[in-house]
Design brief:
single chain, 883 residues, mainly beta, Immunoglobulin-like, 5 helices, flat
Length: 883
């Protein structure tokens, strides 16, 4: 009964409480709706701001207003980050909250470009719903650093190449900014606040192993920045080597340039790899887990990289190298090699092994297989050879890769008897020389001690460095069979025999051959007697040497001859022999050059002789055969007339013809002759030029002279005849007659009142003729009579000759055009003037000298009335000129 009452009371109380809660909720809802209708939101609640200086990140958390009404529309929160000192926002962002996120805690973060230490940052939030906006929440402020000395932030930052980073310098109280340097380079700065400055740097290149310094005002005030790359590893491959652990390898990608505690850290399937790990990581695991993922994580301050390889380790067994490799039971042609495995589990694996034999640079690879194989037998080895052997193995059933090579083991095989010698002969002059090729290391099968040559009942031992033996002269006229053997510590080689033929006349070369690519291609006619093939030997044509030879099998009539001893520009002689059951038979001979060259020896003794009027003979000394560097096709004579150098003519002369050539049809003149040798590679060996003047013969010269003299005689005769017929005319022209003086009334006239007087001329005595000096210097001459009175003054242009008794003769100058000359004969003071003509002085009479043609002049008899000149007096000193 009591229990029922108690239950009734409890139920009653619960109903009353329920009604109360319903009414209270309805009341609050009405109030909230009323508030929203009034346009007022309470805004975010319980706002918390966290500042991470190392990451330069601001993180904000908050909750919704508990009175916010749920609705289909989203709720928006505005977040602002401001610089506290200037209250300028540096970042603004709207955060959307959907209806399913209402009443939950909200998170927001932002990374600042400017280090948070550089300035005080404040954060505030508000909410927006439809057209309603709440008030801003109270500021949440992070105070910047305020050091006493300059500080640069951020500290020891790690950034990626090709990114931007902002540095700031906070000055101490009362300080001013002097500079900011990045890697010792001045940078532009931006003023953030009164004591804070910032600069932005673009990281173009990685930092050195240490870091890059950033300084402010002084080198001691600054920070350090590390510039690099995130991990770039690739190609992860995991395997097992000892069947008890996993080893993963990967390729190192691009360098990160980050070292020490900032370098890349590696983890394999969540377990850290050794600290010095760079390209591999080893961990002890069970290898029978089947196929699984192996994950490598590479991480550094700039990023994280994951590489995954899926593998079954039982199928990825990479065997280690065998150890204690050793050669046993070594013989001349076989040897046994054995080794040991360090991992006992290898002895149960079916594996395949590779054995590498190295001998004189030659590599021979051999393969062997078996369970846990540990030894092999090597066959087909060469005697007296040194071998180095290496071994590696891999699984045969699930082959993954070859294991590591073992260390090498070296051994030498025993000696064996030498192989047969390759024997040939050389017939020179009256002697035959037996030749054989030296055995190679693979043919000698050991160290050759000597050679033995046997012919007839004689034998000879030859030292190992000599590979020929001359036979005595008495055995060269008949055929002889000669055998040669080689000996080493194991015994003698099988004998090699050759039959020496009788000496015969030497065969001339049947043709020329030119080499190509350092070799000769020879083709010859087959011989029915050559039952065992052919032999081709060769030697320089004009040098002493031991020939080399090549043996050609039966049925082949061509061969390509190659030799390291071939030289360019050298002529070689090839002899082709047929191998017969008896002695070798010489079939053909060829000569050739492996490569022809231009002649280097000059053609000498060029001479030119004239024969006849238009023929010359040219002779020279040709290039000797031993000096020829190619086959001569011809000698070419070049000649031209010096008056026409462009008209060069060429005449070809066969080298087989005599070294002389006649050239006809040459005209007279000077010629230049040169001589060259023509080959397949061009002309060379040019001689010195020879200059020759082609002259006409003596009989033609005589004929020309006779014709010239006859022509001159005829011309002289014609001139003589013409002169003779016209002698009077010529004489009158060359020697005109002197006209007699014309007497007139003016010849004798009184002078100054004196009467006419007869000229009284004494005999002319040339020895007493005095020459008056140069009257041109005196300017004038005064003539006085016998009484000493001055007679007259004459112009100073004539010469005067004084005669005995005071007589003067005046010679007027030649071609004078002055007034009539005066001929004065001073006797008793009388002068005679001739007005009828002028007298010209004869050139034969020099001034001051008497006439040679007139040694004397007869003295005329004195007359009283006039002067008388004897008719026999030749007065050539006067040449009258009629005026």
């Amino acid at each position: 009964m009591l229990t029922n009452q108690h239950l009734t009371r409890t139920c009653y109380r619960s109903v009353i409480m329920l009604h109360f809660l319903l009414w209270a909720s309805l009341f609050l809802l009405i109030i909230h709706e009323q508030v929203c209708q009034d346009g007022v939101l309470q805004g975010p609640q319980d706002v918390k701001v966290d500042y991470s200086l190392s990451e330069q990140r601001i993180s904000v958390t908050w909750e919704d207003d508990p009175f916010s009404r749920r609705g289909p529309d989203k709720l928006i929160y505005d977040v602002e980050v401001l610089l506290t000192d200037s209250m300028k926002y540096v970042h603004r962002e709207a955060v959307d909250v959907t209806s399913d996120q209402v009443y939950s805690k909200h998170h927001w973060s932002w990374t600042s470009v400017l280090p948070l230490e550089c300035a005080s940052h404040s954060v505030r939030l508000r909410s927006r719903y439809q057209t309603y906006t709440s008030q801003w929440s109270p500021l949440q402020t992070n105070t910047g650093m305020k050091p006493s000395t300059p500080e640069v932030y951020p500290k020891n930052k790690v950034v990626q190449v090709d990114s931007n980073l902002t540095f700031c310098c906070i000055l101490g109280p009362g300080e001013s900014l002097k500079f900011m340097h990045y890697n010792n380079t001045p940078m532009k700065t931006i003023n953030i606040s009164e004591q804070s400055y910032a600069m932005v740097v673009h990281m173009r290149t990685p930092s050195p192993p240490n870091c890059i310094n950033v300084n402010c005002n002084l080198a001691t005030y600054g920070t350090c920045v590390y510039v690099g790359y995130p991990p770039d590893d690739r190609n992860l491959v995991c395997e097992t080597r000892d069947l008890e652990s996993v080893v993963c390898h990967w390729d190192k990608g691009r360098l990160t340039y980050l070292t020490k505690k900032r370098q890349t850290q590696y983890h394999l399937n969540g377990r850290a790899c050794p600290h010095d790990t760079m390209t591999n990581c080893k961990q002890t695991v069970r290898v029978d887990q089947g196929e699984k993922n192996w994950t490598l994580t590479a991480e550094n301050p700039l990023g994280t990289l994951k590489l995954i390889d899926r593998a079954d380790l039982k199928k990825r067994v990479h065997l280690l190298a065998p150890v204690e490799l050793e050669a046993l039971n070594v013989n001349a042609r076989n040897a046994s090699v054995q080794w040991r495995w360090e991992i006992n589990q290898y002895n149960n694996l079916l594996m395949i092994c590779e054995v590498q034999l190295e001998n004189n640079g030659q590599i021979d690879m051999r393969k062997h297989s078996g369970n846990g194989i540990g030894s092999v037998i090597l066959t087909d080895l060469a005697p007296a050879q040194t071998y180095t052997v290496h071994v590696r193995c891999g699984l045969k059933q699930h082959f993954w890769k070859w294991g590591d090579w073992s260390r090498g083991s070296t051994f030498q095989t025993n000696e064996d008897i030498p192989e047969k010698l390759d024997v040939w002969m050389q017939i020179e002059a009256n002697q035959t020389v037996v030749l054989w090729k030296p055995l190679s290391a693979n043919q000698s099968h050991g160290h050759i001690l000597d050679y033995e040559v046997t012919w007839g009942r004689q034998n000879a031992t030859v030292i190992p460095t000599r590979h020929y033996f001359p036979l005595s002269d008495q055995f060269t006229s008949e055929r002889h069979r000669v055998t040669v053997t080689a000996r080493n510590s194991a015994g003698r080689s099988p004998p090699t025999a050759i039959t020496i033929p009788r000496l015969s006349k030497p065969m001339r070369s049947a043709g020329n051959v030119v080499g190509s690519d350092g070799a000769f291609d020879l083709v010859w006619s087959a011989s029915p007697d050559a039952r065992c093939g052919y032999v081709v030997d060769w030697c320089p044509t004009y040098k002493e040497c031991r020939p080399q030879w090549l043996k050609v099998p039966t049925g082949i009539t061509r061969a390509r001859v190659q030799s390291v001893s071939f030289e360019e520009c050298v002529r070689y002689t090839f002899s082709i022999y047929g191998c017969t059951p008896g002695a070798p038979e010489l079939l053909e001979r060829r000569e050739g050059y492996v490569k022809e060259c231009l002649p280097e020896v000059q053609i000498k003794d060029l001479d030119v002789h004239q024969y006849g009027s238009d023929t010359v003979q040219i002779s020279w000394t040709g290039i000797p055969l031993e000096n020829q560097t190619s086959f001569l096709r011809s000698y070419v004579i070049y000649y031209f007339n010096s008056l026409d150098p462009a008209s060069v003519k060429a005449v070809h002369v066969s080298p087989d013809e005599p070294k002389a050539k006649n050239l006809t049809g040459l005209t007279s003149g000077s010629y230049t002759f040169t001589l060259k040798a023509l080959t397949s590679v061009g002309e060379g060996g040019e001689s010195s030029p020879y200059y020759k003047k082609i002259e006409p013969p003596i009989d033609q010269l005589i004929t020309v002279m006779v014709i010239c003299l006859g022509s001159f005689a005829c011309l002289l005769t014609l001139v003589t005849v013409v002169c003779y017929r016209n002698w009077n005319c010529i004489r009158n022209k060359l020697y005109p007659k002197i006209p007699k003086p014309a007497w007139n009334d003016k010849w004798l006239t009184e002078r100054d009142g004196h009467g006419c007087q007869i000229l009284d001329m004494d005999r002319c005595d040339p020895s007493k003729i005095d020459t008056v000096g140069d009257l041109q210097q005196a300017g004038e001459v005064e003539l006085e009579n016998n009484t000493g009175n001055k007679d007259s003054v004459l112009p100073c242009t004539d010469s005067y000759i004084t005669a005995p008794h005071g007589n003067y003769i005046q010679y007027p100058p030649e071609h004078s055009t002055s007034a009539p000359h005066v001929m004065s004969f001073q006797h008793s003071g009388t002068q005679i003037r001739n007005y009828s003509y002028n007298l010209v002085t004869q050139a034969a009479l020099d001034i001051g000298q008497p006439s040679i043609d007139s040694p004397y002049c007869p003295k005329p008899e004195p007359h009283n009335d006039m002067s008388h000149v004897p008719s026999g007096c030749d007065l050539r000193i006067y040449q009258p000129h009629v005026t």
